[in-house]
Amino acid sequence: MYHGARWAGTAGLGLAGVGLTLLHALPTPQLHATTGAHPPYRPWNFLSEYVRTDHAPLMTACFFLLALGTLASATILFRKHLRWEAALLALAGMALLLLGLFPTDLADMTTDAVTCGQAARIEPCTLAGRVHNPLSTLVLVPILLVVGSFCVRSRREPQWRGVTRLAVACGALALCGLTAAFFYLHALGWQGRWWTGLQQRSLVFPILAWMTGLLVAITKDGSPREG
């Protein structure tokens, strides 16, 4: 079971990273609204909105691969008696699985407020979209709590100091990304919502890098053994 989880975690996170990179290397797609509109996908659109383009199969596969890698990592943490962290990653993994099952509605980029029912939306809200929207919080918050937990552990358990140093580096990368996103949108004269796909990417990619580093740390020979 341990070796199967290790293989699944490595394959899931690795292939998800490749898939997400490929999405950004492919030609810019068009969004497909239920109203028949086909606006271009822009940098400020969210990652999940790729499922509303011709690249939908690849984005959906990325959700399932991320879920696989996260749940496999949770299994390994549980086997190593890191139960709190395992539970948090399991919650994040289940949320990722649901993100793949319930496609998003196209976002209203003019405001951070909920605009379901308003005629100005690019398309009406759907039940699947309403389920999808809060799930990203159930991915990011538990993982950030896991990051914090390992940072605290590293103060008394030296084997986690490498994971903590990686967290600091990924945090710095995320901060740089958020700052760059702010200045980019400011240069465009952006008057829309504060939280956009640019800010989302500034967190998602550093978190994926940290998750990969955590998986390496918990499966290498020098990591804590199962009890």
Describe the structure.
By secondary structure, the chain is mainly α. The chain has one domain. The chain has seven helices and no strands.
Assembly type of the shown chains? single chain
| Main sheet attributes: strand count, strand direction, barrel closure | none
Round the mean pLDDT to the nearest integer and report it. Answer: 92
Order of helices and strands: HHHHHHH
Q: How much beta, percentage-wise? A: under 5%
**Low-pLDDT segments:** 221-227
Instruction: Tell me roughly what share of residues is in helical segments.
Output: 55-70%
Apparent shape: globular
Q: How widely separated are the two ends? A: 15 Å
The assigned structural class equals mainly alpha
Q: Can you tell me the number of structural domains?
A: 1
Give a count of the beta strands, DSSP E runs of length 2 or more.
0
Radius of gyration: 18 Å
DSSP helix count? 7
Nutshell version of this structure?
This protein has 227 residues and is an all-alpha fold. The protein contains 7 helices and no strands.
Question: What features would you highlight for this structure?
Answer:
single chain; 227 residues; mainly alpha; disordered C terminus
